[in-house]
Amino acid sequence: MMTNSGFNIEKTIIKHQPLIVNDEPSLTNPVSQMATEAQCRADAFYYWCEETRLPHEPIFHRKLWEYAYILQCLSEAGMMSPGRRGLGFGVGQEPLVAVMAARGSEVVATDLDSEEATKQGWAGTGQYAATLEALNDRGICPPERFASKVSYRVADMNKIAPDLVGFDFVYSSCAFEHVGSIELGLQFVKNSLKCLRPGGIAVHTTEFNVFSNDATIDHQQTVLFRRQDIDRLAAELTSQGHEIVLNYNTGSGPFDRHIDVPPWSGIHLKLQLEQYVTTSLGLLIKKAS
Predict the structure, then answer these.
(1) Is-contact 175 110, C-beta < 8 A?
(2) Rounded CA gap, 204 and 178, in Å?
């Protein structure tokens, strides 16, 4: 899964440097990559849209891509099957937990407590699940199986409880850019690996600044990560024996060059946020064995 076959190597590999490739990103054999038009036309994208019971014709939306990317990464790693245990952070009302449970995985779904979610504005936006049942409101997983496979608990992504360990996989969908700053977000990613067993998989998606590798948004409710931030994170992870492959190819289709502005359209792969252009970046990390 973490191989580099078929990729064009952009830089020479040296000790403690992650592999960087520059082919058009694909949902087949995914690495750490951005949302692109071609991926939203792929069979795997349509498949996961069907499985999450979300619309997909004709929508080129980065949130749908995030769901497809996370599920595809976990599926290719064999993580969505009986006997596998997963941990989700900031799950909101995502359909991902139900898809995982339907395939037999045991999932601990976590989010902020209701008071903090209300304080930060998530409770009133449809992005916070006040009950466990809300995570299966599309009926993706049979209720009896869902009840036996999924548990819910409050968790602060900046203070992960020490008993949340030994999982086969962890994931989050556009959550760690909301923990307070770029540094706190990077620290969350590193801390999430402590929740994994050796050889486990972490899959996280987040906001990525494709406008600048210098100026960005930091220390706000939403921050924009830059390539320098991800490079630094990947170098540290690689030095510790973890595996990560980076692909910064932004896509070559016409919709990859479209920058969405309010009122939002159905072509929502890249968008304007203040003076910056952002898209979704997925991180796929294999913990050292």
Answers:
(1) no
(2) 13
